[in-house]
Each structure stands twice: as C-alpha cells, then as structure tokens.
Design goal:
alpha/beta; Helix Hairpins; Rossmann fold; 3 domains; six-stranded parallel sheet; four-stranded antiparallel sheet; ion channel; potassium channel activity; Trk_Ktr_HKT_K-transport; ion transport; transmembrane
Length: 352
C-alpha cells in the first residue's frame, strides 16, 4: 500500500503541475481509447490503417478538419463529437500552452542573466557595466562583429535585465571576480575578455580571476590609475592594461594640432582609416619589415605601422627588421583583413 500510495501521489502531482510526462501519458491514453471506441463502432476505414488514424486524430485535434477522413456511422460521429474532439483539443491546447510557456521561461531567464553559454567560442566577454561607456563600447563591437561571430556576453552585477537584448547576451553575477559567472559566459572559449569594474580594485580582482580561469583568452583591463595597472602587469604579464589617454592627447594636440582627430580615426571602426592587427601564421616564414610594408600597400592598400614581437610593440621599424611566424602586424586600412583568406604570398619574400 505505501508503494501504491506514493505512486498515486506522484501521479497527482504530475497531473496538477501538468508535466511533460503527464501530458504524454494523457495523449497516449486518449489516443488508444479513441482508436478502441471507433474500432468497436465499426469504423474500420479509420482504424485499420495506423498511419491514416494518426493523420485523422491529429487533424481532428488541431481543428483543421480537412474532411478527407471522417466517421461514417452515427456511433462514430458521436464518439468523435463527445470524446475525440474535446479530449484531443484539450490535450493539444495544453501542450501548445506548455511549449510556449517553456519558450517564454527560457527567454525570461536569459533576460534576467540566468542563461548558460559555457559552450560558446570565439566571442567577446565583457566584465562590468557602466551605462554610457559600456553601451558605447558594445555598440562599437556590434559594428565590427561578423555574421558568423557569436554574440558578446556581458557579465554584470549592477543591473537586473539585459540592457541590449538582441545585440548581447547577459550573465548576472554577485561579483565580477566570480569563476562560475565566467564559466557560464563561456569565457574559456572567448576570443577576448574586457574588464572594467566600478573601481580599480574591482577591475584588478576580476582581471586576475579571468587570467587564471581562462589561460588562453586575451584579457584587456581598464584602469583609472597607472599604478594599479602596473601592479596587474607585474602579476600577469599577458594582460593588456589600458589607462586614460586624455592627458597625453591634450599635450600632443596642443603641440601638434589635429593629433586627437588622428587618434580617433585610428581607434574608431566607424571611420575609413582604422588601426587593425593580424598575426603571422606558421606557414608564412620570415620576411623583412620593408617587404611587409610594400606587400600590404600593393596587395591590400593597407599601411603597415608597426610589429609586435615577444610582448613588445615597435612602430616605424627599420626596413631590415625580420618578421617571423607568431609576430603581429599592425596596419591601417579601411577594413579588417581576413586572416583566413589573407594571401601571404603578396608579401615579398613570403613562401609561395
């Protein structure tokens, strides 16, 4: 009896909550009883063909009613009117309602930052939200994002809903330095992680956790004070730290008018002349800076401005400097060059 009682209680709960298992059981039971009643009523034209009966049942349940299959006897018509139609329509409506409710719940969870994107790869993860600056940054990211690139994922603690639905995905966190939030955001497979907390202490902690949890992702952190940025650089050399350039731009513009305009052009993807980078692959053996400068200009109308080697960036290099696989070329162009289709043979001296 106790076992039977537990089974009854579970069945009651399943029916009361209208679980998928309860709906499936109701559907199967109603389907089989409907077939049995029509068979007893002599509706062999409907019951002898299994595929035909499934078709008749679904057409009736969805109220489409094509009319190509229908009961021929009075008993069959009464069974259809009093049993099949009400029951099938009720089950179909309940199933549709539960399906829509499930879709709505998934959307609501994503809006509230409860989604899980741990399998995502090649995307951008942003830690921290400041309404004006973060929105502007993500709008710039959206302008550069290619069609096959996944949506960026924002990790934030100061907001309750996704601030830019359709343009980003959102993970709600209690703190930015949260390994579980990084895991839900798919940070291990992210192309880059941008960290900007409410203050430098929060940024420092979040950036250190990000570098530990995501050893293969490029981490960029913004600081208000250079001293804090230097601390992070000493602790994690691979992190790229950024501080405000406003003082430098003020001085440079005062001595060299128009410098701020040049900097804005180089940094904005919305302008025709923007600074980009491309990494030299294994297959593109050594060549000189002069060869790369000439090849980029002639082949892609791009201007080489510097190279990155062993963690350092050198601008306006000597012509005979050797560039090898693993180095980074920094260039100015009106669009980003596609690394997958880049023709390295256009750089003189590169293997053909």
């Amino acid at each position: 009896m106790p076992v039977f009682s537990r089974v009854l209680r579970r069945a009651y709960v399943a029916l009361a909550e209208l679980t998928w298992s309860a709906l499936l059981l109701m559907l199967v039971a109603h389907f089989l009883v409907s077939w049995l009643l029509l068979a007893l009523a002599g509706e062999s034209a409907l019951t002898d063909d299994a595929v035909g009966f499934v078709y008749y049942y679904m057409v009736t349940a969805t109220t489409v009613g094509y009319g190509d299959l229908s009961p021929s006897s009075d008993a069959g018509r009464l069974i259809t009117a009093l049993w099949i139609l009400p029951g099938a329509i009720a089950i179909f409506t309940a199933t549709l309602g539960k399906l829509l409710s499930g879709i709505s719940e998934v959307w609501r969870r994503k809006m509230k930052g409860l989604g899980d994107y741990h399998g995502r790869e090649g995307h951008l993860v942003v830690l921290g939200w400041q309404d004006g600056t973060s929105r502007a940054m993500l709008e710039l990211v959206a302008g550069e994002r290619t069609e096959d690139e996944p949506l960026p994922v924002l990790i934030a603690k100061s907001i309750e809903d996704n601030p830019m639905p359709g343009e980003i995905d959102f993970v709600k966190a209690q703190r930015l330095a949260d390994p579980q939030a990084l895991e839900r955001a798919g940070a291990k497979g992210a192309r880059s992680i941008v960290v900007r907390g409410e203050n430098d202490d929060e940024t420092l902690a979040a950036a250190l956790v990000a570098t530990t949890v995501c050893p293969s992702s490029h981490v960029v952190a913004h600081f208000e004070y250079q001293a804090t940025a230097d601390i992070l650089s000493r602790q994690a050399e691979r992190v790229e730290t950024i501080t405000s350039l406003s003082s430098e731009l003020l001085v440079r513009s005062a001595r060299d008018p128009g410098s701020s305009k040049v900097a804005k052009l180089l940094l904005s993807a919305a302008s025709a002349d923007t600074a980009y980078s491309i990494k030299v692959p294994e297959r593109a053996g050594p060549f000189t800076y002069e060869q790369a400068l000439t090849g980029l200009r002639k082949g892609y109308r791009a201007t080489l401005v510097g190279i990155g080697q062993n963690g350092t960036v050198d601008l306006n290099c000597l012509d005979d400097v050797t560039i090898s696989s693993g180095d980074t070329l920094y260039y100015i162009c009106d669009h980003r060059l596609d690394g997958a289709s880049f023709d390295w043979s256009k750089l003189n001296g590169a293997p053909r």
